[in-house]
């Protein structure tokens, strides 16, 4: 286990300390779990606005004349659908079809792409992409791969009231990537470069909460100044700083996967229910053959969401899932939903048991509690 002295700290570490955040280890980083409380922060995002430090995420740039074709060979979605200023959710698979990571890819300009990857996977992703780049038939300056994570910090502002105050800090217009007159003109999955003081920050209309919002990438200094400016501008609109605890309960409510829980190198995107982000018809890519075999021959397991039927302790990862008198799977993510007031979660079961309304039981502390498979999103 990493000690406090070994943990990496984001550019916003001192801001978290100033706000008396409860700090914990996550993916090798010292990050805020909560400030005032997970439930309060969760409900702020659902009803008003919340702000998260996401500086631990990794940023990788891929550029050059061969960048598009290279990315289309190592990612599951069809990168050819992008244009400057547009992004897409996608996955990176190994040769067995298992998931190396789930990520966002943005096209910033004609030959420049930005990959935003999971904190715990950044080093593995860079190594994997570098190995694939060495195998790719590009010559000279046709393909460049750079781990730019150390150059950037990032934050996310999420919630229904964010659009009411964000332009007080970032009035626009954008001058790179997606050209818009004002930041709130960005549509879902679009990204633009906006002036902030004497710098530029990249702002995308994306997020991990199920609410409308924006994710912002910039230099350490820019993100520190923007964090303070947004806290001040958003105070009258109910903005609260939020930690990893609320980030987790929010994403479970909408059924978003977390790498290391719903996704890993032995689980395919199809098993995780992410078929919409796998373009099997685009031509060959790493992992396509086993994914196509699964598509035609059937899945080994399927990711489901569930709700507890009656009052129970919260479900947690690794708890057994029962159907009748058999253990048929295990919980990958579970929590007490602040929005719904009941236990919810996700897990894997055989495909024949994955239909919504199917009754199951979750074993919690050696006792079984009734639950029901439910469609996503749960909230």
Description:
With 379 residues, the protein is α+β, with helices and mostly antiparallel strands. It is 21% helix and 32% strand. It contains eight helices and 20 strands. The protein has helices at residues 13-18, 38-47, 67-74, 122-135, 166-169, 220-234, 244-254, 288-297, and strands spanning 22-26, 29-34, 49-53, 58-63, 86-93, 99-109, 112-117, 144-147, 153-158, 176-177, 191-196, 199-204, 213-218, 239-241, 302-308, 320-323, 326-336, 343-349, 359-364, 367-374. The strands form four sheets. It has a seven-stranded mixed beta sheet with strand order 10-11-12-13-9-3-14, with helices on both faces. A six-stranded antiparallel barrel has the order 15-18-17-16-19-20. It has a five-stranded antiparallel beta sheet with strand order 5-6-7-4-8, with helices on one face. The chain starts with 12 loop residues before the first helix and ends in a 5-residue tail after the last strand.
Q: Topology of this protein?
A:
Elements (H helix, E strand, L loop, with lengths): L12 H6 L3 E5 L2 E6 L3 H10 L1 E5 L4 E6 L3 H8 L11 E8 L5 E11 L2 E6 L4 H14 L8 E4 L5 E6 L7 H4 L6 E2 L13 E6 L2 E6 L8 E6 L1 H15 L4 E3 L2 H11 L33 H10 L4 E7 L11 E4 L2 E11 L6 E7 L9 E6 L2 E8 L5
Parallel strand pairs: 3-14
Antiparallel strand pairs: 1-2, 3-9, 4-7, 4-8, 5-6, 6-7, 9-13, 10-11, 11-12, 12-13, 15-18, 15-20, 16-17, 16-19, 17-18, 19-20
Helix pairs in contact: 2-7
């Amino acid at each position: 286990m990493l000690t406090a002295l070994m943990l990496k700290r984001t550019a916003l570490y001192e801001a978290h300390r100033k706000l008396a955040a409860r700090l914990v280890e996550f993916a090798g980083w010292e990050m805020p779990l909560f400030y005032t409380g997970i439930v309060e922060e969760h409900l702020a995002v659902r009803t008003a606005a919340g702000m998260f430090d996401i500086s631990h995420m990794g940023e990788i740039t891929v550029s050059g004349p061969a960048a598009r074709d290279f990315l289309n060979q190592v990612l599951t979605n069809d990168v050819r659908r992008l244009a400057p200023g547009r992004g897409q959710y996608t996955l990176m698979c190994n040769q067995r079809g298992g998931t190396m990571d789930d990520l966002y890819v943005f096209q910033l300009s004609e030959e420049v792409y930005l990959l935003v990857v999971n904190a715990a996977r950044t080093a593995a992703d860079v190594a994997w992409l570098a190995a694939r780049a060495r195998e790719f038939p590009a010559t000279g300056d046709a393909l460049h791969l750079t781990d730019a994570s150390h150059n950037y910090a990032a934050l996310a502002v999420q919630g229904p009231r964010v659009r009411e105050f964000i332009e007080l800090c970032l009035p626009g217009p954008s001058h790179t990537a997606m050209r818009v007159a004002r930041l709130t003109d960005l549509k879902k999955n679009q990204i633009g470069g906006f002036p902030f003081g004497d710098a530029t920050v990249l702002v995308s209309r994306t997020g991990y909460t199920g609410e409308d919002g924006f994710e912002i990438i910039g230099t350490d200094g820019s993100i520190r100044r923007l964090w303070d400016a947004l806290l001040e501008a958003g105070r009258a609109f109910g903005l609260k700083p939020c930690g990893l605890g609320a980030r987790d309960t929010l994403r479970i409510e909408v059924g978003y996967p977390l790498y290391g829980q719903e996704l890993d190198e032995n689980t395919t995107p199809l098993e995780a229910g992410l078929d919409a982000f796998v373009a099997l018809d685009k031509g060959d890519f790493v992992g396509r053959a086993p994914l196509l075999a699964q598509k035609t021959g059937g899945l080994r397991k399927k990711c489901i969401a569930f709700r507890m039927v009656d009052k129970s302790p919260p479900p947690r990862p690794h708890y057994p899932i029962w159907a009748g008198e058999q253990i048929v799977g295990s919980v990958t993510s579970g929590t007490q939903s602040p929005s719904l007031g009941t236990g919810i979660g996700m897990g894997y079961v055989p495909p024949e048991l994955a239909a919504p309304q199917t009754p199951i039981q979750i074993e919690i502390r050696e006792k079984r509690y009734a639950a029901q498979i439910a469609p996503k999103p749960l909230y």
